[in-house]
Each structure stands twice: as structure tokens, then as C-alpha cells.
Fold this protein.
Amino acid sequence: MALEIVQVPVLADNYVYLVHDSLSGLTAVVDPAVAKAPLEAAGMRGWAITHILNTHHHPDHTGGNLEIKRETGCTIVGPTYDKDRIPGIEVEVSEEEPYRFGETEAEIFFIPGHTRGHIAYWFKDDNALFVGDTLFALGCGRLFEGTPEQMFDSLQKLKRLPGQTRIYCAHEYTEDNGKFALTVDPDNQALKKRMEDVCKRRAEGLPTVPSFLSEEKKTNPFLLAEDVITFAEVRARKDAF
Ligand code: ZN
Ligand code: FE
């Protein structure tokens, strides 16, 4: 447990994360939608940003890449599966090999569905999973470039991780996701209870992210879908919700 993780809310509902390894002094910024806020959040703590870790190419995840690179000279890391669409990518990562970060490492999962090149970073020793827009608290990403089969398989991959894994997703969508989830699963007591807490936290302006994978397994309709047909049906209903 060597990593310090800082959540930086930006734009309407994005979360950018700083990941600081105190042993090596390295600091990564995960999915910088913008440059200024994460640069300031790092500066306040006396950290210099040394790396950018991108999960996928969307502008609300890479918009700050080039400016942060210009300011800090950091290294930009992203999915080899999407190397042509990640601004400034220098280090390509894939499922073949864990990514070494200072004194720790992240396993890489290839999780297409939201986009065709999407990955997640799993810092196993710290139980931290950076999932971008694939798995959300009580939801999952829209299928912009992938099929229901791909997204279902991607979520199954993540579902196998330990329950104590913290899900660091890139958007605060939980309350809306939960309203939809209640229409799918109105008798799910764990979901009802969780939604009470989510609504309370949001009313107080508090984040509902990260969540634990164990909670998602019990309450997230997209992880509860047992087969791809059910998953596709629930996803289509959510798109129209
Ligand atoms: Zn996205
Ligand atoms: Fe996004």
C-alpha cells in the first residue's frame, strides 16, 4: 500500500486522478481531461507529474495530455490498441505485460466496448482499478465502438478481481445510474440501501467514487446481468432512459 491517490473533479462530472508513489517519488495523472487542475493539485502537494496514464482516447480523458507534457516533460502512457488516437503517446501498454510504475506495477486489462482500444490499470498491491469509462459506479460505459459481446466480456474480466478492489471510474454518474438500476432491480435491498447513501452524499456535494467491486457485484445491473443477451437488453434500455 504505497500509493497515494488524489481525486480531482473537473469539467461537469469528470474525475482525474493523481497516483503518487511515495517510495520512488513518481506521480502519474490518470485520464487528464484538462491540464490546469491536476497540475495545481500536484503542485499543492509538492509532487511533480512524471507520467500520464490514459485509459482511452476520448478528449475528456486526454485533453490535458499535451499541455501537461509541455509543462512537466512527463511520459505519456496509453493503450497500444489505440496508439494512433492517444495524443503524444510514448509508452504503449497491453495485456501482455504489467506496467512498471516506480516500486509498484499495474496489470493492464484490454476492455473494449466503450471504445475499441480501452484499457484498465490495476494496481493490485493497492487494490486500485482505474477503469476510465468502462465500469461506472452502478453503471457501465456506452457502447460507442464495441458490441454488447465485447463489453460483456470486458466487464466479466473486471468482475473476477477481488471484492476489495476500489473502482476509480472517470465520471460521477452514480445517482443517475442508480435511478436506472432501481427500474431494473426494484427489489434489490442492497441497491436500495446503497442509493439512499448515494443520494445523501450527492446532496452534500460529496463524491460517490471510488466504490468497492464487492458493492458493484451486488448492485450494478450490468455486472448482475448473467448472460450477454440480458446485458444487451439492459444496456439498450439504459440508452433510452
Ligand atoms: Zn469515454
Ligand atoms: Fe469520459
Summary: Residues 56, 58, 61, 114, 133 surround zinc ion (ligand 1) (CB under 6 Å).
